[in-house]
Design brief:
The protein is α/β, with parallel strands linked by helices. It has seven helices and 13 strands. The strands form three sheets. Strands 4-5-6-7-9-8 form a six-stranded mixed β-sheet, covered by helices on one side. It has a five-stranded mixed β-sheet with strand order 3-2-1-12-13, with helices on one face. Strands 10-11 form a two-stranded antiparallel ribbon.
């Protein structure tokens, strides 16, 4: 299975800019790159903060851009989003029985779970008892098959202090809920932190990546306002097989030179050999 992971598109209205950048122009280029190189992907997932202010014009602007995407798409809600305009503009977005933006996709590779970790009025992540019960039920019903989790907020600190303050508040309860199923959870994908990070949590491998517009700066000292940066945007190409999950990060606006490493203006190794031989002599 080939999966495309995007996150934090932070859309605003048509023609508007955010932090000096146009999110629509950047996502249009991202979509074009995905279509050019990964039209065969089985699924694309955007892990939240689809918009910046949660307004209808921003969601409409986002839909017009995503209408061009070839692979099938799943959307996850983030703390900058509002569910009502999201479901109005994207009527195919699924809700669970309690009205949260949560859904399940079962494939031969396993069960894919798309979680809603938002609470209106705060940027911090929240996962209430109803959602914990829903998650536990979905994991239990998977009956040991591989599971893949997608959410916006990380359920653990990433050691960037301003972001850790708005991570998942019910991290302990979330961890206890997934603990009995750690052996079957093969990967956790999340957004929110606008950084390329990988590792493991409670034995569960995880990845996140830079957003498609602006980024959070790599700063482990600042404890005040969130540091921003204009580092390159990225998307991830994920290959899922029976015995591995491989994640590639692609800076789709990178214009650095490409060349054949086997062809150079001189034979480096031959020059090195001759230099060593001369030194010995």
């Amino acid at each position: 299975m080939k999966l495309i992971h995007l996150t934090d598109t932070h859309f605003v209205g048509p023609g508007e800019e955010l932090y000096g950048l146009d999110p629509r122009k950047r996502l249009d280029l991202c979509v074009a790159d995905i279509n050019r190189h990964h039209a065969d992907a089985d699924l694309a997932v955007i892990t939240g903060d689809l918009t910046h202010f949660g307004d209808r014009p921003a969601f409409q602007n986002l839909k017009e851009s995503l209408d061009n995407l070839v692979p099938p798409l799943r959307l996850i809600v983030g703390n900058h989003d509002l569910p009502d305009p999201l479901t109005e503009i994207f009527p195919d977005v699924e809700l669970d029985e309690n009205g949260f933006v949560q859904s399940v996709l079962d494939r031969s590779e396993g069960r894919f779970l798309f979680l809603d970790s938002t609470l209106e009025g705060t940027h911090a992540g929240h996962y209430c008892e109803k959602r914990l019960a829903w998650l536990e039920q979905q994991l239990k019903e998977a009956e040991g098959q591989p599971c893949f989790l997608f959410m916006h907020h990380p359920p653990f600190p990433v050691h960037i202090k301003p972001m850790d303050r708005i991570a998942l508040k019910e991290a302990g309860a979330f961890g206890e809920t997934v603990a009995p199923y750690i052996g079957q959870i093969r990967h956790l994908f999340f957004g929110h932190v606008h950084r390329p990070i990988s590792g493991s949590w409670r034995g569960i491998p995880f990845t996140t990546l830079r957003g498609t517009n602006h980024q959070v700066g790599l700063d482990f000292e600042t404890d005040g306002e969130t540091p921003g940066s204009h580092e390159p945007p990225a998307y991830a190409i994920v290959f899922i097989g029976p015995d591995q999950v491989v994640v590639h990060f692609h800076d789709f606006l990178d214009t650095s030179a490409r060349f054949d490493l086997s062809e150079t203006e001189f034979d480096f190794w031959e020059e090195q050999r001759d230099r060593v031989a001369a030194d010995v002599a």
